[in-house]
Amino acid sequence: MNCLQEWKPPLKPQRIGDEIMKLLFHISVLGAALLATGCRPASNATQPPPPAVTVAPVEQREIVEWGEFTGRSAAVDSVEVRPRVSGYIQEVRFQSGQLVRKGDVLFVIDPRWHQATFDQRQAEEAQAQAHLDNARREAERTSQLLANNAISVEEADARRSRQLEAKAALAAAQAALDFARLDLEYTLVRSPIAGRVSRALLTEGNYVSGIAGAATVLTTVVSVDPVYVYADIDENSLLQFNALALARKLGTDEHGRVPVAMELADETNFPHEGIIESFNNQLDPGTGTILLRATFPNADGRIVPGLFTRIRVPLSKRHVALLVAERAIGTDQAQKYVLTLTSTNTVAYHAVELGPAIEGKRVIRSGLQGNEEIVVNGLQRVRPGMPVAPQPELAAGEARRFAQR
Q: How far apart are CA 92 and CA 69, in angstroms?
């Protein structure tokens, strides 16, 4: 029964004035209204709907677990270009940062002095050749003249000696000519390798030294394709890698080389594929790491020597693993967990042990069976045991695309 219906206004007193009676009447009616409001049953209050969450099944995929390490790129070949003869720079024949081929002329040293020396040596070689020809003719007549007693034995020996001396003088003149020819050729300073050239450290008109041990550095050239990547590998990862290598469980290419992957600072998903070239021969006791060197193709020249990189090295054989999205993993103090959907549309708590990240997902080493559905969106809105309104992840994605139209 309503509380307002149970209240009865008091009888009108005979000895109280009309004004006082009216005031008491209004107070009584107001109190009855407040009392009636407080007496409504609580069962009429509405309950909030269960929160909506997005769920997705645990993915099972055959993978290789990788270790990720930081590294730096480096050129396979790097050369300081120095002159082999001294002189003044007459011409610079490249632009800074230009790609050059092996043998391309980079600098021209004034060749006039070296050309004059070459001409002199060429004349000396011709003179020596003439002396040899004359000595040879004399030596060829020696036997006949000696048989006719036209010359003495001493003169015959002298003629033969002069032929040998002329022959040696010609060899010395030819060697000096070859030396002068090299000096003249070296006035054209060529690139010793194919690659990218730096800036010219000295320009036209500057004197450069070609003396061995004190030759002037003119520029540098680094090779472009392929490139090296150096990375420090920790001891535990090295032991895992070596154990797999000894057991012949590492994936290799057709040449028996171990493949690796690499990404630059502005890249994701390790788009560059290469091979392990070598490990250093000992562990650094100060850092507990060993230096790895990998080789990567670089046909487009995008990988510049000295760039920061991340390199991915295989640390397991190929096996089937459970993967969940990174956003589905929660942190409970030091414990990682995921929430799974039960048959009654409530959520359950599962502590998990994580493995490495694979293409935006995380390997689950333990804590799941593989047939669960995981809460991937709305993790912060629910608690274990709460009822939820699940929505498949694919349907949620379609709904977002529809809303964007």
A: 42
Distance, in Å, from the CA atom of 83 to the CA atom of 219, rounded to the nearest integer, reads 10
Per-residue pLDDT of 351-398, as tens digits, reads 888 887 777 788 888 888 888 888 888 778 888 888 888 888 764 444
Q: Is 121 exposed, middle or buried (0-12, 13-18, 19+ CB in 10 A)?
A: buried
Domain 66-76+223-314 classification at class level: mainly beta
CATH code reported for the domain at 53-63+319-404: 2.40.420.20
Distance CA 315, CA 240 (A): 6
Q: How many residues does the chain have?
A: 405
Lookup: tokens for 334: 């030091």
Dig out the tokens for 218 from the structure.
């003119």
Q: Spell out the SS3 assignment of 113-178.
A: HHHHHHHHHHHHHHHHHHHHHHHHHHHHHHHHHHHCCCCCHHHHHHHHHHHHHHHHHHHHHHHHHH
Averaged pLDDT score across all residues of the chain:
83
Mean pLDDT of 155-170: 83
| Sequence-separated (6 or more) residues with CB below 8 Å from residue 295 | 76, 226, 227, 228, 229, 274, 275, 277
CATH number for the region 83-222 comes to: 2.40.50.100
The residue ranges of every structural domain in the chain are 3-38, 53-63+319-404, 66-76+223-314, 83-222
User: Could you tell me the two tokens for 112?
Assistant: 């006039």
